[in-house]
Amino acid sequence: MQLEVMYRGAVYPWHCDHMGHMNVMWYTGKFDEASWSLLSRVGLTRSFLTSHGHGLAAVQQNITYKRELKAGDIISVRSGVLDVQDKIVRIFHEMRNEETQEVSAFATITGVYMDTKKRRAIPIPVEVAEHIRTMRLDQNRLYWTETLSSIPKPESLS
Fold it and tell me: Looking at the domain assignment, is residue 26 inside a domain?
């Protein structure tokens, strides 16, 4: 599978820091919104998670910044799944300036599936894991792992 658009939006003046660029906190927020869109697409909606007493916790996020974004820029975040393990899902995001099509940032996010009452990791239900795998990226198209050494290649693909 290829990356799919999971978020579209604009950079507003209040997203920018004193240097006139979108502040790093907003990259994190927009990647988070894309994550929840992707997870919802595979069935991990708020209602599903609540009804089962399950949730997801982000335990690691790596962002590589490539190009600045400024107020007025329209952006998209394309996303896909890097890896699904027993209790873990790893997501990849690519943020682009829609006008120039330049990549402004990449992110990998590792999430742990959990029991929200016991506050501990639990195995991802088999049917849920299968849905997540439908968003798995083609291993032969992981171009960013060759060009960005700061983004670790998933162990299962080594």
Answer: yes
How do residues 134-148 score in pLDDT, each as one tens digit?
999 876 666 555 545
Rounded distance between C-alpha atoms, residue 30 and residue 96, angstroms: 12
Instruction: Provide long-range contacts, Cβ within 8 A and 24+ apart, for 124-128.
Output: 124/84, 124/86, 124/87, 124/89, 128/42, 128/43, 128/44
**Domain assignment of residue 52, yes or no:** yes
Q: Is 157 domain-assigned?
A: no
Say what the pLDDT of residue 146 is: 52
d(CA 30, CA 81): 17
What's this model's pTM, rounded to 2 decimal places? 0.86
